[in-house]
Request: fold
Amino acid sequence: MAYLGNPKETIAVLQKYGFNFQKKYGQNFLIDSHVLDKIIEAAEIGPEDFVLEIGPGIGTMTQYLAEAAREVVAVEIDRKLIPILEDTLSEYDNVTVINEDILKVDLASLARERNQGKPMKVVANLPYYITTPIIMGLFEKGVPLESITVMVQKEVADRMQVGPGTKDYGALSLAVQYYSEPKVVANVPPNCFIPRPDVGSAVIRLTRYEKSPVEVKDAGFMFRLIRAAFNQRRKTLQNGLHNSKELQLEKSTIVETLEKMGLPATVRGEQLSLEEFAQLSDLLQSAE
Ligand code: SAM
Reply:
């Protein structure tokens, strides 16, 4: 089987199987070999690695991963792609395709069964409609991870990297920066995909920290605070936290705690750094 990362081979496979793109699954297949090389290089895949690929499509990137890694598991939701993947990946005996919704796969068990519970590398050209739940799920569900190297919408890559005080700053920025070190590896224009997406894309590598640089007693509680703070973005932080159904905090306790931290009563969540959310979390946790 020829490499698929170019328009000619991709169109040939699509025609052979009479495949129709499903917009609802965020299907934009890569047709640029330079971008594929860049992703593989940034992910630093070696012969010892166990790789999880999310959404293999017709197997374009899976071929590269199979050649570089020890083992690849690729999770694809669209059952119409399964016979195509059997064909395009027939030469590789180290690839398993699972026909499932990635959000429903127990990835911690997968790592236990296939990689002795050791950290895995995740590589994907993500379906953009579920980027945030995929990334949050990987970090928050105790999946052993070394790195996540993914193609995302350019704007989402920006959101992952920014700090307080900007409109892009939010719960995703804080989660990504608490758990990992983000680095944009490449900007990718729409003409590198078929069909072309309406937005620009970027490849970002998130290298998981063994230990987060920010210390907090209970990260779960901190992220409940963060969600509450950004659920009502325009409200003051004290109102956002007080109104949240996820938290049972007295207004007076919140006011006193913000005062103790030297923050004004009118402060909004988007003005707090990760370190400040950690401090707020430690102080409020005992008060809940
Ligand atoms: N990796 C291929 C490539 O680069 O050419 C395809 C990438 S395409 C942007 C996203 C892929 O994710 C599609 O194959 C789509 O069917 C699949 N997908 C969408 N939602 C999914 C989900 N919930 N679970 C698993 N795969 C999903």
In short: Residues 25-30, 54-57, 60-61, 75-78, 81, 101-103, 125, 127, 130 surround S-adenosylmethionine (CB under 6 Å). The mean pLDDT is 95. DSSP finds twelve helices and nine strands in the chain.
